[in-house]
């Protein structure tokens, strides 16, 4: 079979870990498989490069930042290729552009528009292990781009789709996808399987194992994903189209996101176009708005609140202040120390009362629910942050997710 194996920054954090990865890849080849390996920059290299650049220029010109950041992955591919060759195997390293990754002409977070993997395929045919730099591409114009932070997952999945690999294995520092954060709930269980849709929700909810864009890509191209540890041989979690639902399981996972702030815009003139104006301006400023609630109208004035990422809150307030002349309102406020807790499960669709149970469990912890949003397979509640652990533990037990100990 043909495998794409992706190793993240912590898996290739130093030369010793690099050797461990090399051995792991060689073992895969010994099992009779063809291997393409996608790697991230070593350890915190990308962050370190950005920090150094900030000492020279606080504005970080986007084109030059891409030029700089892509060097991190280039170090990794060369080193890993050397480590693999040291084991007596043939290996070759390719940058993103050598591997054929074409992106839109945007710096910092470009989308892949095309992949021409001829070089990769040729080297595979020659029996080589192919090592490809994650997170990078080139525009039709020949400009170097990056795919957004954490983008190596996307490189791996997109390449797996392009070369019709049998699976894309994401090797990371955890064993797989868990029912919730094992640091909070000791009896969290590792999921054997999960559907793309469920994984997509979890990825968007801040469960850091997989980049959302990579999951989207996998869902679209139906590449089976396996999330597993690079430090042990435990079975990982398979992410695929239809995950087998365990008997009686309605909720597969519980996620939380501490990176939320609530913005409230009070006393807004209730006329057509208000929402479009406000949220259009936020979108234009590249501020992602998550939950939006209109919380009542009186005397022709409406109150709205929405959530944004914590680091975006000041900019969001600025944008809304800037709208005051066009869209009059009384005041804008924000609230921090909040957290969004979400339950996710494909089994929810056929089980009414899942949300009601969640509200009940949260209220029994004496915690106030500030905002709610739902989809077919997800319920999210924004709550105050100080009782997060208790809430997650209670939900984990209530939805029968605790492993038997
Ligand atoms: N090295 C890049 C980053 O740190 C890409 C990645 O790790 O996936 O964001
Ligand atoms: Mg990284």
TrEMBL record:
Pathway: Amino-acid biosynthesis; L-methionine biosynthesis via de novo pathway; L-homoserine from L-aspartate: step 1/3; Amino-acid biosynthesis; L-threonine biosynthesis; L-threonine from L-aspartate: step 1/5; Amino-acid biosynthesis; L-lysine biosynthesis via DAP pathway; (S)-tetrahydrodipicolinate from L-aspartate: step 1/4. GO terms for molecular function: aspartate kinase activity. SUPFAM superfamilies: ACT-like, Carbamate kinase-like. It comes from the Bacteria. Catalyzes the phosphorylation of the beta-carboxyl group of aspartic acid with ATP to yield 4-phospho-L-aspartate, which is involved in the branched biosynthetic pathway leading to the biosynthesis of amino acids threonine, isoleucine and methionine. It comes from Paenibacillus provencensis. Belongs to the aspartokinase family. Keywords: Amino-acid biosynthesis, ATP-binding, Diaminopimelate biosynthesis, Kinase, Lysine biosynthesis, Nucleotide-binding, Transferase. It catalyses: L-aspartate + ATP = 4-phospho-L-aspartate + ADP. This is Aspartokinase. Residues 263-334, 343-405 form the ACT domain. Its EC number is 2.7.2.4.
